[in-house]
Amino acid sequence: MMRAKFADRSMGQAFGCIQVDQSNVVVREHFGKFDDVLEPGCHCLPWCLGYQVAGSLSLRVQQLDVRCETKTKDNVFVNVVASIQYRAIAEKASDAFYRLSNTRGQIQSYVFDVIRASVPKLNLDAVFEQKNDIAKAVEEELEKAMSTYGFEIVQTLIVDIEPDVQVKRAMNEINAAARLRVAANEKAEAEKILQIKKAEGEAESKYLSGLGIARQRQAIVDGLRDSVLAFSDNVPGTTPKDVMDMVLVTQYFDTMKEIGASSKSSSVFIPHGPGAVRDVATQIREGLLQASSVEKI
Q: Which member of 16, 126, 265, 289 lies 3.0 to 4.6 Å from 122 by CB, making a disulfide possible if both were Cys?
């Protein structure tokens, strides 16, 4: 298809006609001198009178990716990739065609110059943060330089900033270490709160347990006192001490009976003999009386 198209153009030039495609212009010369810029459409080109086509120029937006290696202020080498979008100006097509022999090379040189003048003034973090400012500086310099040659800079973008692999790894490790430090602090704070709450719970539990034991002992003492008074009134000749001894001994043996009846109990050795009962009663009475006096204090 392309060969047939060029063949048709050659045939058209042989008959003195030329076709210019859309978004393109053709530069016409007369005896080797610039004559006119032909816009899209069909044009007469009488070659026999000295007219000829010098070449064509595209008016479409073109893109040039420039990769530039430079160094930051903190001595880190980075590769900065800039994407330049440009196009030829139709009104200045003759300048764009004749004044530059290597448009892409010229643009690349200006990009190198601006990037290598801007990046060394910034630290690595600032390069990432101010990439839009770098792109704007490149665009302004290119616009000022290339407009005189008939080209318009449509857009300039800094599409990538690539530090050295080891630097990227170090930056990731720094970030990971910072996150681990924050996580460790949060974990320690959570454990601290758990310990505090646990201690507060244990203190409250012990307080309530002690309060319950005190009330239990007070109830026992009150019950014994009432039992002694009732027994003394109903049985003449008995003293409160005798009744107290009998009640304490009875409760003591009832307690030992319950311990023996438990399935998880082991052997319990207690003294036995006529004087043992009195000793047990004396010890129980003294223990309860001392506990009662302490609680009242």
A: 126
pTM over 0.90? The answer is no
pLDDT digits (tens, 9 = 90+) for 164-202: 777 777 777 787 788 888 888 888 888 889 889 888 888
Question: Looking at this protein, which amino acid is placed at residue 258?
Answer: E
* Type of residue found at 68: C
Q: Minimal CA–CA distance to 156: which of 253, 284, 66?
A: 66
- Please say whether the beta carbons of 35 and 51 come within 8 A: yes
Q: In three state form, how does the secondary structure of the chain look?
A: CHHHHHHHHHHHHHCCEEEECCCEEEEEEECCEEEEEECCEEEECCHHHCEEEEEEEECCCEEEEEEEEEECCCCCEEEEEEEEEEEECHHHHHHHHHCCCCHHHHHHHHHHHHHHHHHHHCCHHHHHHCHHHHHHHHHHHHHHHHHHHCEEEEEEEEEEEEECHHHHHHHHHHHHHHHHHHHHHHHHHHHHHHHHHHHHHHHHHHHHHHHHHHHHHHHHHHHHHHHHHHHHHHCCCCCHHHHHHHHHHHHHHHHHHHHHHCCCCCCCCCCCCHHHHHHHHHHHHHHHHHHHHHHHC
The two three-digit tokens of residue 113, written as one number: 């110059």
